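Convert to structure. Protein one:
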Amino acid sequence: MQKICLVEDEKSLSDMIRLNLEMDGYHVDVYDNGQNALDELSKISLYDLVILDVMLPQVSGLELCKELRKTSRVPILFLSAKGTTIDRITGLKLGANDYLPKPFDLEELLLRVQILLNFNEISHEDELIIGSKTINFNTYEIIDSITSEILILSKKEIELLKLFSEKIGVVVSRDEILDKLWGDQFPTSRTIDNYILSFRKTFEVDPKNPIYFHSIRGVGYKFTLSL
């Protein structure tokens, strides 16, 4: 189920949007305050789509968009009563993907949501975003959106990350990894451990307390990007 974060302080409007999105099969979480959303920005960056009102209490939607774009490429749809060309350009320059002025037609909102989610799924099928880092499976590159640093990975590292990306939240056994990536070469399980340690140093904020790459004792490993 695709997950949408809605940041909207007008309760009647947010209730209406949430109800209709849920009727279309989406999971929706709502924030009614810009500061509350900012406090949980790392969590919000993991949603499939963020719908942002521009005018919010304490912290504006524009500021939230700006902060989100420092670490995440999650699609962002702005909603705003300010629908002038300048306002739309401002939102798009900050990194938003679309801008819908209020009042809007509900069917148009649902259509724009569907388009953004579909486009994101198609365009990023060869990429994986972990925190501030984007992995390109075609070029073997990791690009850090904060520092702009580029790291080149080995073919085996890319293959292992690709496998994890296809099994998010699922425990993958050592035997499965060895069979799919090494075949008849028979490396030791310690070889995989070394790759996991390397991934933690690269992607985890605190490698000793991983939130992405987990070791499951006696079984294998689990990669998570859960909210």
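Protein two, convert as well:
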Amino acid sequence: MFKINRKINITILIAFISIVFFIFLKGNDRAKHLVTFPSDKILAKALIGEEKIEIEIVQTPEKKSKGLSGRKYLAFDKGMLFLYLIPKRYKFWMKDMLFPIDILWIKNGKIVEIDEDIPCFSDMPLSELPIYKPDKPVTAVLEVNAGFVDRNNIKVGDKLQILDF
């Protein structure tokens, strides 16, 4: 009796894992690479270089696409972090941005590239927006106010450490 129940339980577990894996693979390209959390908004404290900041972790494809668009400002000690499961050269645009930003391209916790003082393009048609992407695959992208990198002497090779959720 125990062996039959165990076989049934294992079969159910394998079926469940297969269904979850199938759903994951069938998701759109953006969704399957984005790390997600159960809450709608995740705030964390982080250390970048020697500067402590509060970051909002982007969790859904919709929030990823929107990013900081439409926000009137971002405090100088805050940022928005995009996390990915698969290293890739992810593309970013500045649709409806109202302030300039710095973008830090990160792979496995280490800054591999920096784009500084990216202008806002609030009035530009979507078809004409410049696309920003790193030269190397990344696993995370951090957006901060323009000037953050310069003010805090952030450089390629510095680490981003999540301190507290």
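Residues 6-39 have pLDDT under 50 and may be disordered. The helical segments are 2-26, 29-33, 61-66, 148-151.
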